[in-house]
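The data are quoted verbatim for reference:
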Amino acid sequence: VNTPEARGPRFAFALAGVFGAVAALGLLLGVLVNPVTIGFAVPFGVAAYFLWHHASGRVTRDARRAADTSTRAERARADPRTRGANGFGARETRREDGGTRPNREGADRSLSEREAYEVLGLEPGAGQVAIREAYRQRVKAVHPDR
C-alpha cells in the first residue's frame, strides 16, 4: 500500500533507524576516539527514541488511554459550557429532583439599593451628580492599576 497514511510511519521508522545508527556510531567513536562525540550522539539517540515511539502509534494509544480514564468530573470541569460567562463557576446548580436552577452566588448577585449607597458612602436619596462623583472615586480607589 502506497498511501500517505502508510508511508508516514514507515518514513518515521526509517528516520528513527538513521538517527539511532548515528547515535550508535557517535557512542562508539566516543568510547574509542574522543569522549566529546558522546555529547553529540546523545541527542540523536533521544530523537531516535521519540521518532520510534511516535511511529509505533504509542503516543496516540497513550493519549487515548489517558482520555478514556479521565473522570466525569474532570471532563465537566474542562467543558466550557459548564462555566459561567466569565469562565469561572457554574452557570446553574443541580437540584435534588434532577432539574437545575440558576446559580445565585458570587458575581451573579447584585446589590440592593441600600447596599449600593453604603458602598459609595452616600445617604439614600443622594443626587445624580453626587452618585457619579462617588462612583468615580470608588473606581479609582479599587482599580488594579492604581
